[in-house]
Each structure stands twice: as C-alpha cells, then as structure tokens.
Amino acid sequence: MFFAREAGCLDPICPFLHDEEACIRVREEVLEARRQELRRPTTRDLTQQYLVESTRIRSSRPSTLSSRSFDDPDPDIDRLWDDNDNVEKICSNPLCLKVQWKQPAARVDNPSMMLCSRCKVTHYCSPECQKRDWKRHKKEPCLPYEEMVENDDLWTRWGTRKGTGNVMIHVDEDM
After folding, report:
1. In tens digits, what is the pLDDT along the chain, a chain of 175 residues?
2. Which residues contact 164 (CB under 8 A, 6 or more apart)?
3. Number of other residues whose CB lies within 10 A of the CB of residue 43
4. Are 64 and 73 in contact (CB under 8 A)?
C-alpha cells in the first residue's frame, strides 16, 4: 500500500485524506492477507506439480492413447486440476514435488513436510530435497517470515509473492 508507508502518501496531489489510523488498519489487513497467501501452495508449485503428473500419466499409457491431442478431454488429467483444492503442501524442490494432501485417508503416499528453518514458508519432504533446492530457494529470497511479509518489494500489487507465479519448466521424461 503506497500510502501506508512512513512517508505517507507518495502522490503530492492526492485528493484523499489519509488519516494515520486508517493507514495502520489497511496496512494490517494487507499484512494478514500476505500471511494467508504464504500458507497456501504457490501457483508455480501447483503448475509444476500438474505438469509433472500429467506427463507421468501420458507416458504411462500405451502409445495409441498417449498420441491423442492435448486439446482432447482427458478425465485423468482433468482430475489433476480438481485435486489442486485438496493440496495442503508441495515439496518446493522442482525435481521432487511430492504432495501433502488435506485429506490423507484417500491417499496412499502422504509425506509429512518440513519447513525451511529461516523463512518458515517453503516446504520440503526431506532434508535431501532441501539441500538440493537451496541454490534456487535462497534467490527467492529466503528471509525471516515477518521480514518477507512486511517487505512491499517482494509482493505484486495483486497480493502474490513475486517469483511464485507461473513459470515454464522443462519436464524430464525420466523423472
């Protein structure tokens, strides 16, 4: 929120009167929305997980079925989008992407996830995944939780963390 900074409103001809209490209240609402956003899987992680799983489904089929067009409806792959609502956490290592589900009873594999000890936001299924992902993760940046929440430069105007939107990745068939 540009007007909730210490300097006040940055627009010298702003027609609105910004009282300090309103600015503080709006700032707290923004920070709480950011905390909520940090608790959810990112769009990037959900998209990567979808791409890996849809590629796995397609490659596990006989060649006659896997040759169908990407435009053809596919109930198994369409179900992946529906499953996004049931995702609790995703391992942040792009080469792993294991999922912890909200309703584990119906799932065979539901690994418990660990948090990055510094930022308390990024999830990993094992210490090995965290070590392998450290070079990428530290660039996000990996900051203490409240510092990440309060730093306006790390957030888009739409309330998502910069760098966590859709990102094109290469899906290796051998994964």
Report:
1. 455 555 556 666 776 666 778 778 888 999 999 999 998 888 888 888 888 888 888 787 776 554 556 566 777 777 777 777 788 888 988 888 888 887 765 556 667 889 999 999 999 999 999 999 999 888 888 999 999 999 999 998 888 888 777 655 444 444 4
2. 42, 43, 44, 45, 140
3. 15
4. no
98-102, Cβ contacts within 8 angstroms, sequence gap of 24 or more = 98/125, 99/49, 100/125
> For residue 96, what are its two tokens?
């792993």
DSSP state of 108: S
In the chain, which ranges are E strands?
A: 87-90, 99-101, 114-115, 123-124
Q: Nearest to residue 106, comparing CAs of 74, 73, 79, 75? A: 79
